[in-house]
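=== Per-residue structure ===
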Amino acid sequence: MITGLKPASWAYAEEFVGEDEVLANARARAHEVGVAPIGAGGGAALRFLAAVTEARAVVEIGTGTGVSGVWMLRGMRPDGVLTTVDTEAEHQRLAKEAFKEAGIPSQRVRLIPGAALEVLPRLTDGHYDLVFADGDKLEYPAYLLEALRLLKPGGIVAFDNALWHDRVADPAQRDGETVAIRELCRTVADHDLLLPVLLPVGDGLLVAKKVWTPET
């Protein structure tokens, strides 16, 4: 029987890739406005995914104050563009500060204010290398459907909070958000066109690759 990590080992892994002053400032702004950004371990995983896919086009659902956006942009191609969606204009204003501090040219970030399920249908089919979701947990299953349409073959979708504060693994927890994330995990695990993995970083990062299938 494999036992879980001890807290010290978990913390060591989470902090293995450190964060600089830009990310620290973005986290401080997140705290001020009540936003919970992805942890350092999850951010490092996103940067890695963006790098190994040589991502040129990325969609982010939930801009926050720019923590995850900075991580992904640092892994993307130098000419890559991040399209990021959030309902809160103030959060996006703060994210712009983080991108500016990180030295990211303004043309590499497309900030779109609005509800994700109203914005995503307007984006181009099969155009994106990576879709990252950290928005309304109740909408996670719907985000997956949009991501499958938006991703290129071989593209990657990732969902933060896939363990949802240890609630997803506990069948006694039946609140709406937990049920929605649990449904998402089942769908991703069973989907014929997805190659999934659930990474125990931060609050859980569910990742899946859209399997390439030859055209008939």
